[in-house]
Write the structure tokens for this entry.
Amino acid sequence: MDPKVNYLLRLGDNALILSQQLCRLCGKGPALEEDMALSNVALDLLGQTRLWYEYAAELEGAGRDEDRLAYHRDAHDFKNCLLLEQPNGNYADTMMRQFYFDTWHYFLIAGLTHSSDARIAAIAEKSLKEVTYHLRRSGDLVVRMGDGTAISHAKTQAAADALWMYSGEVFTYDAVDHAMVDAGIAPRADELCTQWLAHVAEIFAEATLAMPPKDAWMQSGGKQGRHTEHLGIILAEMQFLQRAYPNAQW
Amino acid sequence: MSVPKEAPSLASPKAIIPANAGILTERPIKRSMDPASADRRMRGDDGAAGGGFDEELVTRWLSEIPDPEIPAISITDLGIVRGVRVDGKVCHITITPTYSGCPAMQVIADAITEALRVKGVQQVVLHTQLTPAWTTDWMTDSGKQKLRAYGIAPPAERAQVIDISCLRAGAAAVVTSVSAASAVSRRGMHAVPKPAIACPHCGSTHTEVTSQFGSTPCKALYKCLDCREPFDYFKCH
């Protein structure tokens, strides 16, 4: 597969899987405002997914459109990072997953606005204000929950620790990522990682949370299609209609 | 010598982006007519030069199309119509989404096609443009007045980077910093002056945010501390 198509699918898959996870909470948020916020974030991510998929499908030229990419691929074809398919869990788990992702996503999208690929830069420019919103919100909630009650603090620290091993995959570059860096399309991993660590440390300090060790062993494999057992369940629900009634249309 | 606010610096990596990067996709919106078939239809016509309408007239027609989610304002008030070009009998309309996932875009595209068809424009080609990204600064003054009259607080003036202040801080704040790190940094956030969001019901600026996310992606939920009414605020974007 062409590296750029592969890279675009990774961007789209990350956004789509997290969007689907958040959509599963629609109507089940811990408060009305939280419920609306989750759906709003999910909607932003879904819109970004569509923009990435449209471009990937055009470059690929195989007659697939964004719906086909979303609904007609199996788990091993998805290239999202493992972090995003981790279960919603309790609200600390949901928001910590969001915060880890949002922090990386924000610095990535900011970097992509300078991409040598004009269309990627344009999509990034369109998305930047949205992901800025997302990061402000998730960072704030991490502070509120971490620096909250004894129970909320314990749950937030537990979520931070449990998800930590999934936080490094986005900085583990393979041949596809390196090809994008060399072409001036994507930002380098070390720059993003430095920014990510600095922002997470700042928020954790205010949230009275302990930073897990920086040299911890990190999970990887999602970008290459090797997923945890959770992705299959997400896809089974998301793709049900197209699996049961292939090519059905509204 | 005055320099346009948005002029790209030559040192900026952005300067390498071609000027036409804005037109990203033609026909991403289903049911729009593709230029090729429009051309074929043209050849089948009697070859008349124009269809009896020009850009100004088409723009006026577009200004009568209400936004599907906030019908008090039109799509031109909202600032999402970025270009109108009449080429013979073919009318090219360029629109830009407010938010990436705005579900109203399809409805707006259909409404444009339908409204122009009623006026006799048979061939409408819709283009979607992503950059420059839509901002609430493009909303017209009359649009803002209509929003207020409708019960929605219009967006605050001037947005470059929007500092969405934390919920604990109580209100949205606008900062001018464009540095990536400082745009999301919490340090010094409370020192940033916050724009006064006036209650659209009583005019009081004694208001506070209830939720940064409202009933649509473009709105936040506020309440007035004087008249006690809740209201929507059209977010600065």
Q: What stands out?
A: The longest strand of chain B covers residues 81-87.
